[in-house]
Write a structure and sequence with these properties.
binds adenosine-5'-triphosphate; alpha/beta; Rossmann fold; 24% strand; 40% helix; single chain
Length: 249
């Protein structure tokens, strides 16, 4: 049996809050700012996480706001380095996260396509060959503005171009954070079709979403995170049920 494509063992990361700006009023009033763990601004958005994901698994990550879901994706993507434990990722990652990140506002859409595609390892030859397809996918507005500086793009246009590029990566692991929440109905339809095609090819998906339809449509497995800990690692229905019980309390 091949080794898991993503494996976490006692994974944890510590952040430092900007104490003056972010210490909550409740902490100041009830604990007079002395509560352990946050008194020096340090806290663990994720701690003691162990799991393994096999190639082809589709995992939905569920939890309330601020429970560390996006942080987990950023650890898998290698954008963040753990302070405790280990995360092992055996394959390239296509990060459908912060899709307009990496664009250089001075450059045109066309130049950014080559830049961002190149940064993710796509060759200039591949990008030339698939250029029309990528731009068409990004939609008419982007197509018309492809030789305009992206400074003049709306955030939706940047996200659409970003999705069009990243979804062309051949990488086996897809990370998505609320991708389908952006864009209009037409773009969402294209996103769904693309995600289904990619999953049909046997890619591995880790999806963070508050949209239950998306979660049950794309994910077989579910992680329910509660205050930075793994509360349920089961089927997507089991994870959603635990989340519902928690929010009903
Ligand atoms: N770079 C950072 N420095 C300090 N704190 C951070 C940083 N990034 C996130 N946080 C905090 O870490 C915690 C976890 O954040 P994260 O974005 O992973 O939550 P989430 O579960 O994805 O939330 P949401 O559902 O709102 O997207 C939150 O309290 C957040 O405010």
């Amino acid at each position: 049996m091949p080794a898991p494509i993503i494996e976490a063992d006692g994974l944890g990361i510590q952040f430092v809050r900007n104490r003056r700006r972010q210490l909550r009023l409740r902490d100041l009033v009830i604990h007079r700012g002395r509560r352990g763990g946050i008194s020096d601004g340090r806290f663990w958005p994720l701690r003691d996480l162990s799991f393994s994901i096999e190639a082809g698994d589709t995992v939905g990550v569920i939890g309330r706001n601020g429970t560390g879901k996006s942080t987990l994706l950023r650890l898998i993507a290698g954008v963040l380095i753990p302070d405790e434990g280990r995360i092992t990722v055996r394959g390239d990652v296509a990060p459908l996260l912060e899709l307009s990140a990496g664009f250089s506002s001075e450059l045109t859409g066309r130049e950014n396509l080559y830049l961002v595609g190149g940064l993710h390892g796509l060759s200039a030859r591949y990008l030339r060959r698939h250029f029309d397809e990528i731009v068409t996918f990004a939609g008419e507005q982007v197509e018309r503005a492809i030789d305009t500086s992206v400074r003049h793009y709306s955030s939706g246009m940047k996200v659409r171009l970003g999705f069009a590029i990243i979804s062309h990566l051949p990488h086996p692991i897809l990370l998505m954070d609320e991708v389908t929440a952006v864009g209009d109905a037409e773009f969402r339809r294209k996103c769904y079709a693309t995600i289904e095609r990619l999953l049909g090819e046997g890619r591995t998906l880790v999806l963070v979403s508050h949209n239950e339809q998306d979660l049950t449509r794309f994910c077989r497995r579910g992680f329910y995170l509660d205050a930075g800990r793994m509360s349920v690692d089961g089927t997507i229905d089991e994870a959603l049920a635990a989340y519902h019980r928690a929010v009903a309390r």
